[in-house]
Amino acid sequence: MTLFFAFLIFILCLYLVRGRTAQNRWLFIFRAFFPSWKFFEDATAQYKLYFKEEQQEWRPVIHLISRKKLSLFFNQEVNLCLALDTMVQRLVMDAVEEKFDFNASVSYELVKSLVEEQVRSGVFQFKISNGIQDVLISPEHTKKLC
């Protein structure tokens, strides 16, 4: 343990003497011991998925889950919500690329079937909003009868 702290002090001294960039290969490898927290800097827009049936109001598809003490160890509802949220973000990325008809994409069909599970009967429509504006509004679809 003492050797580790001595090595840290040595690295700190080299950092202060040489400047901000370390050119030594061993110093470059040593940075693997310190995690990068850079992923907190790149925040993206939070997209919400809404649907409506016939002439009703827009309603959210994915609802917020309240946390419980057990959710620290067993967190299936929140994991499902995160997976669905990732699916919605993927659809937005497909729509932004505009290289192909995103209505025929797998992500569009997945989101459409997710909304279709929430719909009771008849004609439905869904939209994705970022809180400020609507990013995507689907055409009207008819629920498939099983």
Could you walk me through the main structural features you see in this protein, from its secondary elements to its overall organization?
- This protein has 146 residues and is of the alpha+beta class.
- The chain has two domains: 2-40, no CATH class; 48-142, no CATH class.
- The protein has helices spanning 2-18, 25-30, 76-97, 106-118; strands at 48-53, 59-60, 123-129, 134-137, 141-142.
- Strands 1, 2, 3, 4 and 5 form a five-stranded antiparallel beta sheet that branches.
- A hairpin with a 4-residue loop joins strand 3 (123-129) and strand 4.
- Helix 3 crosses helix 4 (106-118).
Main sheet properties: 5 strands, antiparallel
- Would you tell me the overall average pLDDT? 78
Strand % is 5-15%
Rounded to an integer in angstroms, the radius of gyration calculated over CA atoms is: 24 Å
Helix content: 25-40%
**How far is it from the N-terminal to the C-terminal residue, by CA?**
65 Å
Number of domains: 2
Our count of helices gives: 4
Shape: elongated
Give me the strand/helix succession: HHEEHHEEE
Q: Which spans have pLDDT < 50 for at least 5 consecutive residues?
A: none
The number of strands is 5
The SS-based structural class is: alpha+beta
Summarize the structure.
By secondary structure, the chain is of the alpha+beta class. The chain has helices spanning 2-18, 25-30, 76-97, 106-118, and strands at residues 48-53, 59-60, 123-129, 134-137, 141-142. A hairpin with a 4-residue loop joins β3 (123-129) and β4 (134-137).
